[in-house]
């Protein structure tokens, strides 16, 4: 008998022992389990904590393509969701599965929601997380965009470039920093200034391990230090000595793809597409009207 059928049979008895449980898997692989039952539960490789104080509300689901929405409420605690992790963005887009379960027989259960975490608010020692259903992805634009710049992200499945190859990434310990946005080294002479503009700084150790930021500037300062500045600060302090990985930047131009990465065959833009000046050009009486290209 399926676990779902077991639950249905239990519901038909009229005397039920029903609870709800939520499993969260972050992008870094960390797993969390919560339940509104008064005792812990265990199934699907999750340990669902009863002492988390998590509840759910405003569950809206449909059989069509409209977006399913739900909301989870809970208490910030050392053994559950930490405020520091929320501030760091570790729960952004985490995968969520919710079950209705017979707490007296956890094998009798069914999935009632599957999706991801959207916006998270926090106040007075508690958090409120928006849960977005699988149909949320239907709101995202799909298809190719006809434009001169490349539409791929460096290293993704359409770009196909391996940033781990020599010269395109560098692992180094932080030598000087403002702890969140600006980082400096005495020697990065193997890379010309500007090499990492548009690239990524990935934190590999310390309190901010697993977080990353996009590079805004890469230059040699007045004191001779190589300086890398991010567009936005990383939301957890980074200390001197923490390991980071710098990945080369790409400005999406065909010349950069060809000359910097030798990856012109995988360029995902249209470098020869006419611009707006060509679209608005017209023949003039005093010009050459031979049937050739307008200039």
TrEMBL record:
Record domain Bacteriophage phiJL001 Gp84 C-terminal: where: 194-277
Species annotation: Shimia abyssi
Pfam families: Phage_BR0599, Phage_phiJL001_Gp84_N
NCBIfam families: phg_TIGR02218
Name of the protein described by the UniProt record: Putative phage protein (TIGR02218 family)
